[in-house]
Amino acid sequence: MFATSIAGSLPKPEWLAETQKLWPQWKAQGESLQQAKADATLLWIKAQEDAGLDIIGDGEQARQHFVHGFLEQVEGIDFENKVKMGIRNILYDTMVPQVVSALKLKGRVHAMEAQLLRAHTKKKIKFTLPGPMTIVDTVADRFYGEGEEGRIKMAMAFAELLNQEALALQADGVDIIQFDEPAFNVYLDEAADWGVKALERAAQGLTCTTAVHICYGYGIEANNNWKKTLGDEWRQYEKVLPALAKSSIQQVSLECYHSHVPPEMMALLEGKDVMVGVIDVASDVIETPEQIADSIGMALKYVPKNRLIACTNCGLAPMSREVAMKKLQALADGAALARQRYA
Ligand SMILES: [Zn+2]
Fold first, then answer.
1. How far is the CA of 9 from the centre of ligand 1 (A)?
2. Residue 38 burial by CB count (10 A; 0-12/13-18/19+): exposed, middle or buried?
3. Which end of the chain is more exposed for a tag (fewer CB within 10 A), N or C?
4. Angle 25-27-30 (CA atoms, 0-180°, nearest 5)?
5. How far apart are the CA of 215 and the centre of ligand 1, in A?
6. Is the pTM of this model over 0.90?
7. How far is the CA of 86 from the centre of ligand 1 (A)?
8. What is the CA(288)–ligand 1 centre distance, in A?
9. Cβ distance 162 to 132 under 8 Å?
10. pLDDT at position 319
């Protein structure tokens, strides 16, 4: 009951990459970079085990960014000539690569981290991939054509590639494959319409557990400013959660603690496991076990006991390593307290 898991990313050690950035520059190159990525992955496997978490991830140590890490292994994308694009409905401008020809995987994307993870923990392991809709929103298109139709075609093309890698991750021994779709609560109608279909295409044929993480983004300034414009009650999930409830995806991760998402929204996910965010990723204040157990208790009004997973609101990548370590411990301690209280 109340298994614990992180949403995905963890801070990169300062010897691996620039710290507290979403697009950090690597500190090493070539073979030594590969070694540094593996070392950092091991470090965080150990930290999650030591904290007592139940589901262990790779902390996304080997990818520069949660979307671009996947794209680097995709043929048909021009990384040399990036263009400025407003992403997440022009929430922020960023330099993005361009799709210039038919998409194809160059080979495995995450074999190293997944195999390392499987070899170094006996616990369940979770691996994250970007969702097709979020990828489409993070690249510029010069190939699939204008408008909605082109976007859908491109999303389905990415979904096929994601599916290839997901099946390979499953063969590596991954227990849970999670797709990250922060774009789902920016493009509400499109998400409910074709976003969920593209997601199901990405998960097609998987026999391991499948999950999706939707959220209002990291605790970075652009996101925090956007959140201020959303009012007191964030009801964006009202559209996408019913579509996800009908889908074949088994687990849904969403933010809860310190969020303006009305908790009753979780009731829209009937039949799914819900990864309830009980750790705020936009604050360095460490949650107490009591606060975490309270959040779990509140969520239990809408989510059955056996379907509740205690999770972080989002990735911890932009935080300091020290704060992230303490938050992992708090998560495990809070869930333990909740098990005593609500058993
Ligand atoms: Zn997130």
1. 9
2. middle
3. C
4. 105
5. 5
6. yes
7. 19
8. 22
9. yes
10. 92
Alpha carbon distance 99, 78 (integer Å): 6
Instruction: For residue 261, give both structure tokens.
Output: 């998402």
Of 51, 15, 56, nearest to 35 (Cα)? 15
Asked whether residue 218 carries a pLDDT value surpassing 70, the answer given is: no
31 CA to middle of ligand 1, Å? Answer: 30
Using DSSP's 3-state secondary structure scheme, residue 318 falls into: coil
Residue 110 CA to ligand 1 center (angstroms) comes to 20
Coil, strand or helix at 328: helix
> How sure is the predictor about 220, in pLDDT bands with cuts at 50, 70 and 90?
low
Q: Provide the pLDDT confidence category of residue 232 given band limits of 50, 70 and 90.
A: confident
- Calculate how far, in angstroms, residue 324's C-alpha sits from the geometric centre of ligand 1: 15
CA of 133 to the centre of ligand 1 (A): 14
Residue 151, classed as helix, strand or coil, is helix
Q: What pLDDT does residue 179 have? A: 98
Average pLDDT over every residue of 61-70: 90
User: How far, in Å, from the CA of 65 to the mean position of ligand 1?
Assistant: 12
DSSP letter, residue 26: B
Cα radius of gyration (the chain): 19
Percent of the chain with pLDDT over 70: 97
Distance 111 CA to ligand 1 centre (A): 23
Residue 252, CA distances (Å) to 134, 155, 161, 163 in order: 16, 20, 22, 18
Ligand 1 centroid–CA 298 distance in Å is 21
**CA 10 / ligand 1 centre spacing (Å):** 12
And the tokens for 99?
């799709």
Question: Tell me: the pLDDT tens digits for 127-166?
Answer: 999 999 999 998 999 999 988 999 999 999 999 999 999 9
CA of 314 to the centre of ligand 1 (A): 4
